[in-house]
Amino acid sequence: VRECNNIPLSQPQQGEAMLANFKPRGYSECIVTVGGEERVSRKPTAAMRCMCPLYDPNRQLWIELAPLSMPRINHGVLSAEGFLFVFGGQDENKQTLSSGEKYDPDANTWTALPPMNEPRHNFGIVEIDGMLYILGGEDGEKELISMECYDIYSKTWTKQPDLTMV
User: Does the keyword Translocase apply (predicted)?
Assistant: First the structure.
C-alpha cells in the first residue's frame, strides 16, 4: 500500500479508480477499487459495496484495505498528498450524498470529512496543489453546473464559479 500512496488517480468511473501511472514500469503501480456495485449477472439489481481492494499487478496480488463507512456508487475518488479521497455518490436507496471520507494508508482507516455544499453524484474531480475541485454532476433531480473546492489542509469547502455548460 505504501508504494502506491503518491501516485495520482485518474478519473473514476462507477466508483473505481485506476492509478494514472498504470504502465508496467516499476513496482509502484496499483489499482484501487473503492466501493461500487457487485453484479452477479446482468440483472438490474446489484449489491453495493464498502470494500476497497487494492491490486498490485506486478505481484499479481489483491490486498483488502479497510472498508468505507458506508456503501457508495457513482462517487468521485482521487489520490492527493498520500491519501485517498472519496466524495458524494449515491447510497443504497439511490439518495445523492454530500459526505466524504479520507483513507490513511499508514493507519488503514477512513475518516469522515466535512460534507460538500451540494449533494452530487457522477461528477468530475481533480486535484491542483492540495485543492480538490468538484465539478458538475447530478443531484438526483437535475444536472449541476456548480463547482466547489475542498482545501485538504484547512479542511474547508469554497464555492467556485459555475461551469459555463453542463
Answer: no
CB-based contact 121:136 (threshold 8 Å): no
Residues 55, 31: Cα–Cα separation, whole Å? 5
Distance CA 82, CA 157 (A): 20
| CA–centroid distance for 68 within its chain | 11
Which domains are seen in the chain, by residue range? 2-160 (2.120.10.80)
DSSP state of 2: G
Q: Are 89 and 76 in contact (CB under 8 A)?
A: yes
Q: Give the residue carrying C-alpha cell 456503501.
A: 71
- Classify burial at 50, counting beta carbons within 10 Å of its beta carbon; exposed 0-12, middle 13-18, buried 19 or more: middle
Helix or strand or coil: residue 3? helix
CA-to-CA distance for 69 and 110, rounded, in angstroms? Answer: 7
Residue that is written with C-alpha cell 477499487 in the block: 33
Q: What is the pLDDT of residues 51-103, one digit of tens each?
A: 888 888 888 998 888 899 999 999 999 989 989 999 999 999 999 999 999 99
| Residue type at position 56 | D
Q: Which of 124, 133, 127, 108 shows the shortest CA–CA distance to 52?
A: 108
